[in-house]
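#structure-requests
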Amino acid sequence: MFRRCFNRWCGGDEKRVDSRTIYVGHRRCPGTNTYLPLKFCDNRIISSKYTVWNFLPKNLFEQFRRIANFYFLIIFLVQVIVDTPTSPVTSGLPLFFVITVTAIKQGYEDWLRHKADNEVNKYLVSVQEDGGAVRKESEEIKVGDVVEVTEDETFPCDLILLQSTRDDGTCFVTTASLDGESNHKTHFTVADTEKHLDSFYATIECEQPQPDLYKFVGRMHITKDGQEPIVRSLGPENLLLKGATLKNTKKIYGVAVYTGMETKMALNYQGKSQKRSAVEKSINAFLIVYLCILISKALVCTTLKYVWQSHPGHDEPWYNQKTQKEKDTFKFLKMFTDFLSFMVLFNFIIPVSMYVTVEMQKFLGSFFISWDKDFFDPEIQEGALVNTSDLNEELGQVEYVFTDKTGTLTQNNMEFIECCIDGYQYNYRDSRTELDGFCVTDGPVSKLQEKAGKEKEELFLRALCLCHTVQVKEGTELHGMDEVDGIGASDDAEQCCYIASSPDEVALVKGAKKYGFMFLGMEGKHMKMQNRNKDVEQYELLHVLNFDPVRRRMSVIVKTKSGETLLFCKGADSSVFPRVQAEEVERIRMHVERNAMEGYRTLCMAYKSLSSEEYEQTDAALQDARLALQDREERLAQVYDQVEAGMHLIGATAVEDRLQEEAAETMEALHGAGMKVWVLTGDKMETAKSTCYACRLFLKSTELLELTVRTLEEGDHPREEKLHELLLGYHKRAVQDRHKDKDKEAVTRSWSSGFREFGFIVDGATLSLVLNASPDASASRYKSLFLQICQNCTAVLCCRMAPLQKAQIVKMVKNSKGSPITLSIGDGANDVSMILEAHVGIGVKGKEGRQAVRNSDYAIPKLKHLKKLLLVHGHLYYVRIAHLVQYFFYKNLCFILPQFLYQFFCGFSQQPLYDAAYLTMYNICFTSMPIVAYSLLEQHICIESLLENASLYRGIAKNAMLRWGPFLYWTLLGLFEGLVFFFGVYQLFWNPALADNGQVFGNWTFGTIVFTVLVFTVTLKLAMDTRHWTWVNHFVIWGSLAFYIFFSFFWGGIIWPFMQQQRLYFVFANMLSSVSAWLIIILLIMVSLLPDIVIGVFRQPQGPDRQQFQKNPGQSGAGDPLSPQSPARPLLFRNFADESNTVL
């Protein structure tokens, strides 16, 4: 470990080169004179932050980086060093409690990480040494070791596949633990490897470790006796990643290339950037205000102390003469010391325990999301997942929702619908449709041979059967269909036969099967298929030109039995049309556009016949590009572009991706809650537009504003001029004209009025022009105009988007005026960038892998669960934590204000009003548990009402409960009650002989009465605010008051031997022996709570309460076990009339 850290800090040789050299099995190649063993990272996985030795210093350093903790540490040190009026225990004990609780929580979490690391590091694996297998712990594997892995085992490190028990030299793996994809992926052995690996000599050159799971560049030099070394390229298809699982293969052998913290899995587990909620920012702002109040109090008291002492006899009374040391003290130093003493005396106005309470509320509150049974999906047997509990309240503040389309709004469950061959439609369903001016009988291909011609039909279906990476699951048999009409295996049977990483490919292979062409699988390097005549055809697979998001197409090069070399290509129309003959495009384009308008996903099929010379050039170029260690991706892309030029278009396919369950209802609810929904997708505009209509994001009355390449190319103007012209026109219609006509302040959906609604459509190419505009004066306004147009539209559709553009859109809105809270939701790896960029990231547990889930803050099984997550959980979390924050500042102001006022009556001598035990226990014990219970269990409006009336969400929008208005109200309330506490008791003490025997009460009794009124008032205030009572609320509220009484009796009823002075000895008991004390306590509590009672009785319900009463004026839900058992008004305000009008 020390060596690894030293190399990381000082920069070893490995970090200075772009590649690494690995000797397979640690055997040097024949003819090599010297062999210097290279040092690589060991195979230990370390996800923990601490060790036994560094836990204490490292954890303390991290905790004291927080301003509040550091502030209280300084106060504690001042109390220790300077002669202050309060004991260091009063600030040291709460600080110790906070630090200890946090350390225990972080230590426990790190212990779990250590435990998980040990399970991985101590796992036994088989390593080939000296011709035999040796069992070792996983952490002992070194780079260059040949490792044996059996079926259903996980790979202990990143391996290059050398040997497989399958005849075709392949193996199947699942990468569910890496990206969540449960589909089987095929990996290939390196050609020309020896059957006996103990006599296999090879050297691997590959790139240094990098986190991209889907990229790997390397080459292997294989040395055989008396021959020149053979060079083979290595790519992602040869790399088996740590954490992946071997499937449908009995055994494989691989050589370790990346180990430990250099594996791709470890590199992908780096921490995400910390997201801060709006509530945390409000807390910091309020803290600054209260810190200013604290400093002002200390300055006022320090100044008035020296003003008071300037009067004769006040500075040095006869009964309290100064010592010589005090007389010799420098006056300004004494003033500074007094200032610090007052700071210490009043420091409890800063609520340090609030941070612990907030953390506890967030951590425990997140379990309610995980436990919500409505989020459980029986299909995948999973519920919601909380990856970040720090953003619970942010779910209640969302203003913009950015959603992916495929797999999020739609199911990503593909079904083959129809195809178009040479301009003719082939619909598998038995119906008659009139298309393009002539009638077509929909049905199997055998009924339509006269339309496109048998040769074109069979060529198209062969392309469907060959142009893919689908595999047939081992152990399953595919039987030919008795009829061409599609009577054959059931969908369930088909589903278990074909294995693919994309559901699109399976749907297309199934579509070909329905028309009589069935893919039978791979046999070595040959693809087998059965044609309509039940004859088996074989094609040698020469090359696969893989799909990627930039090319948006994939191709295969195959060789027929007759020796003809064919290239089959499938891809998006925008990617295929420019590479085929222009006259062929027009016959297919209308079908593609019509299918896209109907919401289907379309792919175009093309082919090309390669001459022997063309193939030889292509093969050589591909081999050279694949052997390159530098810029391999770019060189391969160039070769792909060259060989895929000049193709012939055969036809197109239409695959249906159905809407998610309740997708339209969810989008409608989000609109009703005042949120604006943007759809960011890589699909075609027509397909995405159709989905938006189906989801009710666009209505028939919605006026669509289109800013795409097509609209820019209309007319003869240059693109930038046309862009500027369109932006100005759309801005006038959507922003300027609308502001003249409307009386509302926000753009929301109005179902009953004739209010015009706009929808905005933009594509990726145009967006690049907007975001990357030239810096001249006219173009500098593009971004501002574009953003204003979008913000004044009810919905925005961005199509043909790259993943980076999705993040750019989110960032642009997030950083716009007002800093609106953004939420991104998606299910695929291409959505990760926008999920990380948004304030809140939601991952959907879909079929495109789990990368989105792993990088999200929250994960839900389906889109429909977003409605309850925001409208219910988000709403309640925000209200709870907002009340918690305001309540903490309020009760601490009530606590310290009497202490401040007391200084005016004790000569500013820094005499404390409360006993040290009360100072310490106030925030830790006496008032802590009721607010914790409130912040976890409160339901001011029941769940059913929140779901039914989405507009309730608007009542808390834009941080409504933590603005300066509510903060000022709570502050004034705290000031009023603090004044009542102090001066009410002060009036009682005009005659201090309050006991029956004439005994005079002293200053500690005065402070105890004030403290008693304080504890009861702030606790009953919370009881009045509680609207959803459970046994937990009753227990903690009344239990806290009972504990205070018990503690006061216990603390003052015993002589404690460890205390030099005991100020409260029998003070509490003597106080309660006075009827006057009882009377003043009850009276002051009632007077303090009177404003809340009066306001609650006479004020009309506001915000959510008012809307709820208007929505459900006469509902009664007392029998509903899930509903709060109280009306919208506080429990203590209820009367008999409320019982029949309870709103739940």
